[in-house]
Amino acid sequence: MANWVPLWLHRLGSPPVFYRFAGAVRPWAFGLALLLGAVALYGGLVVAPADYQQGDAYRIIFIHVPSAWMSLFIYGAMAVAAFVGLVWRIKIAEVVAMESAPIGAAFTLITLVTGSLWGKPMWGTWWTWDARLTSELVLLFIYLGIIGLYHSFEDRRQGARAAAFLVLVGAVNVPIVHFSVNWWNTLHQGSTIRLLGPSHIEASMLWPLLTMMAATKCYYVASLFARVRADLIASEGGKAWVRDIALGQPGNDAA
Amino acid sequence: MSQFLAMGGYGAYVWTAFATFLIVLLIDTLAPLARRRRNLRELRARLARQENRRRPGTPPSNESNA
Question: Are A36 and A218 in contact (CB under 8 A)?
Fold first, then answer.
């Protein structure tokens, strides 16, 4: 690896540098998310044909599946950040882990609600206690537990460290969610998109799905950076660089 | 157009799902922006109070327009 990469990462561990970096990246990530999201919605709602079995109800897939992927992807990112924060005591890593949790919870909630709205017309029930649905619900509770534990400490860093342990323990649920459709008999259908081998979906339906996946990834970056910035203002409030931003010193409050 | 909105009879399910998606993410977008602004306002007020304690009699000019 080039020498400047670890150097750059090291510099990014400094809160004022990360604050400025996040402020510069956030509008671009958010704009890209809006653009890709709009294209994906057009492709999924207008361009893609109706399904031969499910009619137009299947179109919920274009938000349900990307949200479900994000609910697991964000947990993975959060677990990596929590691990880095616990081992190397890097403050930014702790903040990134803690501020990822609400976004992951939001995507998990979307997954559960849209899945329920899809299940009613197709399966005839809003909810069933099978492996995929139950493990996804447990994922939501784990996210809520992490958020609650973080906020129940007076000292933020102590809360972040306690919640980071919960993140690592709760990580055991992620493979359970992912493989639940293979390990148990379930009402939920198996994987449609496969990394290895051909996917079980037509190209006209595949591209809006993948575009929405890219849009939600960009959205996660934008939302995470906005949250980290808000968090740093409060947690670094005693430091000179935050005071300069608060008092409107020129050149510091970019975006 | 009305055919598009009907979604082959599944309109209620499909549009509720997409509305949920957009509303949840809209809240998730706006909440941190408001939180950052609130944190900055509180910090400014705290700094003004400290300044006032250090030099009594100075009007807390930073608090009024916070």
Answer: yes
